[in-house]
Amino acid sequence: MTTATPGQAVVTGGRLDRVLSALAPAARRGRIVLGVVRPLAWVLIATAVALWIAGLQLGWRELTIAASVVTAVVVLCTLFLIGRTAYDVVLDLTRDRVVVGERAVGAVTLSNPGRRAILPSRVLLPVGAGRGVFDVARLAPGARIEELFAIPTQRRGVLDVGPVSVLRGDPLGLFERVHRRDEPVALYVHPRTVAFEGQSLGFLRDLEGLPATDLSPDDVSFHALREYQPGDDLRHVHWKSTARTGTVMVRQYEETRRSHFVIGLSRNPADYAADEEFELAISAAASLGLRALRDSHSVEVRVQGGQLPAASGKQFLDGLSALAPSRPRDGAIADLAGVVAASLPTASVVVLVCGSPVDAARLREACGRLPYGARTLVIVADAGADPRLRRIGDADIVTIGGLDQLPSALRKVLA
């Protein structure tokens, strides 16, 4: 048995690396060549090879003629791949954010920066899982053409529009050469929302927030009077009581919480009877969040598995556009309420949003886990149902069958 020395192993490894490096460009070219061949072309190539072998082996002239015809068709189709596709491509969306049901309008502009004409070709515009095709005529040097398009939106989501690809191929679809000329653009399809009348949602009763049980020497919610202690602010002395009792009395206040609006939106499939309810719940949460943001409240949005950004209305709606159902093991509405209590203990208003399968017992459990002292509202999305209002403990439970029912239902709660 011959044993290789370490030096010989290094030399062998070096030669192997050089061989692989030399073969890499050829492998890339091979992948490019194979990438232009469509499945139908492979079928015809295999058929031509079989006919040639059978014709020559059996001496049948008919098989040889058929093989010649198939071969000629394949060769002629390869000629359609010849030609430049060096377009300058610009993809422009009029709006990259639309509401469900609206059409997103845009344009693809192609120009020929070269000195030679570009032969007719096709342009592919992927939109989500689908794609649009534009036939582009011969483009002279320096010429430019603009193709307008409209994208209908039937569902909430985030669609990748592009990248624009220039396709050159034959009429039979045997070969297809694709060149990507642009980067994709994200199109956000926002959920439907409904506007509320009035200056606020009506949950908050004072200037800054809801009063808490903690006492404070300086706030906006007056609580009681007490005797003066060294260090108290003289501005809070109650002079009438001081004159009457003969003892310096100062005002004491209840500490108030700043308006902290929290939305707990369940995305567990078990909390909804159908996809329609899930979309209704998202639209209701979006409407409430936008109203709170317009009222300058601090808004937090919690879902199973994390939180959604809500620093602005656009950011909030973008996050809802990409929201998808969670896995059942991520927890239901009661687990989400526990997360809200653990991460946001100072919330002043909590709105839980779920679907019709969540019964009264589960709602009671969820509301019981929320931060103590927070005003609680539960929105139940029950597609097609009549609106109704009920109470479970200190929580108001509002059931809506459509988004247009939300404003009137909330007016009953806040009456």
TrEMBL record:
Instruction: Give the highest taxon in the source lineage.
Output: Bacteria
Keyword field contains Transmembrane: yes
The UniProt keywords, alphabetically, are:
Membrane, Transmembrane, Transmembrane helix
Transmembrane intervals? 32-53, 65-87
What InterPro entries does this protein's entry cite?
DUF58
Q: Kindly give the Pfam families that the UniProt entry links to this protein.
A: DUF58
Q: Where is the DUF58 domain?
A: 225-351
- The protein, known as: DUF58 domain-containing protein
Task: Give the source species.
Answer: Microbacterium ulmi
